[in-house]
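Standup, Tuesday
Yesterday: got the pipeline producing C-alpha cells again.
Today: sanity-check two examples.
Blockers: none.

Example 1:
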Amino acid sequence: MGIGRRHRASPAAPLVLLALLLAATGCESTPDARPAPGAAAPKSAARVCAAPAAGPATAPAGAVTVDPAVTGDLAVKTRNSPPRTTFWLRPGTHTLPADRFAQVVPKEGNSYLGAPGAVLDGRRTNQYAFGGAAPDVTIRHLTVQGFVAPHDEGVVNHDSADGWVVEHATIQHNSGAGLMAGARQRVRANCLRANGQYGMNAYKAGGTITGLVVEGNEITGNNTDDWERRRPGCGCTGGVKFWAVDGADIRGNWVHDNRGAGLWADTNNNDFRIEGNVLESNDGAALIYETSYNAVIRANTIRRNNWVEGRRYADRGDTFPFGTVYVSESGGEPRIRARTDRIEIHRNVLENNWSGITLWENADRFCNSPANTSSGHCTLLVKDTARCAQPAIAGPPLYDDCRWKTQRVDVHGNRFVLDKSVVHCTVKCDRMAVLANYGTYPDWSPYQGERVAEAITREQDNRFFDNDYVGPWTFVAHDPSRMLDPGQWQGTPYQQDAGSTFRARDGG
C-alpha cells in the first residue's frame, strides 16, 4: 500500500482511563534537542519491558514440555500433537532448524506458555517464529527475538490468522514487524521493543481485521532499521501501523521512543477508540489517523513527540504545520457503521510536543488520482474505483464519495501546553491547523483551486471548542500561508475555539 502522510502536492473490557492532568512547565532549533530515551514510565503507563510478568515455573497439567536443548523441539512437537494442545517451554533458549523458513505452525486452539527465562531465538537466521492460518492460538510469557522477517512482514502470527491472544510476551530485536494481527486478536501486557520496522503491523492481506484489542502494552524503540530513510516517503514505520481495521480498542498503552510515529492508522480504518494511552518521545507524530473514518481519541497523555521529524521539516524550510496529532483525509461518516459517526478528540493533555493538532486534506488525493499514494485503493463509499472518473466524478454523489474527507471532527476539552524552552525551538513548533492545499492535479480533477481548502475550513463541520491553551500558540487556517493569532482564529470567518481559554503561562 502506498502512504500519503505528508502534503504531497506543494465492546471490550472496562476502559482504563488515565486521570493525568499535567501542570505546565512554566522555530529556530538545535539539532540535538531530542528528549532523552529511557525515562521513567508515567505513573499510570504500562510498565512492561523492565519487569515482565513471569510465566508458570512448572508445566501445567496435561501440557507438552518443550526442551531447549533439542533444536526444533517446539516445531516438531507442535506438528506431532493434536489441536488445542498446551505447550510449556522450559527455561532457556529455544531454537529452530537453521533454515530461514523454519517456523512453528500452530494448530487450532494451541497454547504456548513460557517458563521464566524461556526464549525463542531466531539467531538472525529464521524469518518467522509462529505462522500459518490456524485460529485461536495463545502465546503467553514467552520472549521472541532474533528473527529476520522481510520488510512489511511479521515474526509472530506471520499469516495474520484470526482470534490469536498474545499476552505477557516480549517480542524484541527482530527485523520487520514483531507481530502481525488478525481479526479478534487480543494483544495485552506485552513488551514490543526494538523491532526493525514495527512493534505490530495490523495488516491482513485480502481482508479486513475486525475486533482488535491492543491494551496495556509497552511499545518502544521500534523501527531500528530506519525505513523512512531507506525508502523515503514509504510511510512504513513506527510503533504500530493499522491497515483496514474495522473496530479497534487501543487503550492503556505506553507508546514511547519509537523512530517515526507512535500509532498510525492508514487507509480505510474505521471505528477506533484510542484512549487512556501515554504517547511520548516518539520521533514523529504521536498519532496519525489517515484516510480513515469514525474514531474517538480521548483521555490520552501526549508529550514530547515529533521533536525529530517536526524539526527536520522546519530546518529545511518546510512551512507545513505537521502536528503531533495528525488527522489526514479522515473524518466522521454516518453511512459507515461504527460506535460514533464523528472523529472526536477530547479530554487529552498535549504537553511540549512539536505543534499540536493538524486537520489536513490533500485536494489532489482521491480515488483514481495519480496523487493517491494509497494506490489502488478507494474510499469505503465507492466499491468500483473505475467510477471515479470524468464526467461522473464532477457531480453527485461521486464528487463527495470519491474523496476521503476531513469532516465532522470535534476537538474539545483538551489541554494544550507549550514551553518553547523545553522543546528547544523558536518558530514552527507552536501551530494548530485546519487546512488544505490548492488543487492542481491531475488535469481532470474536479477539486482544483481552493474548493477543498474552503470545504475543510468552513463547510465540513470541523470544530475546535472549549479547549485550554497554555503558551504561545498560533493557528493556521485554509492554507499554509494564513497564520492567525487566537483572536483571528476565534473571529470571522473561522469562528473556531468558542469557549476556549488562552494563557501565556499557567497561573497568570
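Example 2:
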Amino acid sequence: MKPVKVGVVGCGNISQIYFTNLKKYPEIELVAAADIDLERAKMRAAEFELPKAYTVEQLMADPEIEIVVNLTFPKAHANVCLQALEAGKHVYVEKPLAVTREEGRQVLELAAAKGLRVASAPETFLGGGIQTCRKLIDDGAIGQTISISGFMMGGGPEGWHPDPEFFYEVGGGPMFDMGPYYLTAYIALLGPIRRVTGSAVISYPERTITSEKKNGKVMKVETPTHIAGVLDFESGAVGTLITSFDTKAGTSLPNIEVHGSAGSLLVPDPNTFGGTVKLRRLGGEWEEIALTHGNTDNNRGIGVADMARAIREGGQHRANGAMAYHVLEAMHGFHDASRDGKHYVMESTCQRPEPMPALESSPTAS
C-alpha cells in the first residue's frame, strides 16, 4: 500500500519513542515535526532526519500530511484535534481523548461530519500481552467471563517527575493519568461498559514535590487521588478498578485479573505491550502461557500504523475514537457517581475492537 504521510505535533519527552517507531512502520511516511516552539521542532526534525519542521499552524496547512499525531499536553488535546480535523486531516491523539466529555463529543462529531478518522492512545492493548489474553478468552480457556479486577496503586509522581503539578490539577489524577490503559484493556477483553459507580477522595489536600528540579515546592491537590470504581459490562460481567496516588508504602496487588466459570487469567501491566500471562484452570495451578502475538516491545505508534492501514484498505481501525470516548465517559462517570452517590449510566457505547493477527506458530488454548 502507498504509505500515509504523517506529521507530529508536540516534540516533548514522550515524542521521542513515537518518532523512533513511526519511522519503522511501512504503512507510514513520517515527514514533519511541529511544536509551538519552532526550535524544538527543528531539533526533533534534525534528530530523526525529517524533511520538515513546522509551527503547528504550518503543519496544519501542509496539504500532503494526511494524519496528525497529537502529542500535546492533555488540556490541548481537543483543540489540536479540532484544528487537524478542520484542516481535513485524520488525527491520532495521546490519551486521554480530551479532558471533558463535551470536548470529546466535539472531536467525534466534527470527524464524522468531515468523514475523517480519530484514533487515540493507549494502543498498548494491541501488544502481545493483552492480545494473548484476548485469544485465551475467545478460545474459551476460562469459560464464561464473570469478572475483571484491576489495580493501579502508587505513591504519586512528585518523587520522580520534574514537573508533576499537572497530575494534581482538574483533568489529572490517577484515573485520568493511568485509567485509560486499564479501561481500554478491559474493553478489549470484555467489551463495552453499561454503568459505573465508585468512591473518589482527595486523601492529601497538599503534596510536596521531592524530585530534584522543584524539591520542596508544595502543590494544592484539585482532583481525587484515590478512586475505587465498580463497572457493569454490557456482557453481564462485573469489574472493579482502583487507581491511586495514595499508596505510598507500596502494594502486592496484581495489575489485572479476569475470572471465569472455568478458570482465571493473570493479565500483564496494561501500560506495557508484552509481559507475563498466567492461566489457572479449575483444579489446577497457575501456569505461564507463551505469548501468541507479537509487538511486545515499546511499540507506541502501532495504533497510527493500524489507522493508516484502515485509511488505505478500509475497515475500522482498532484504537478508534468511539472507544476512546467511551473510556473518557467512564472515567468521568466514576467521579460523578462518587459525588452524586449513585450509579452513572453510560450514554455512549463502542465495539470491542478486532483482535490483532496471531503469530503463525501460536498455540491454541482449548
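Quick observation on example 2: The mean pLDDT is 96. The domain at 128-293+325-345 is CATH 3.30.360.10 (Dihydrodipicolinate Reductase; domain 2).
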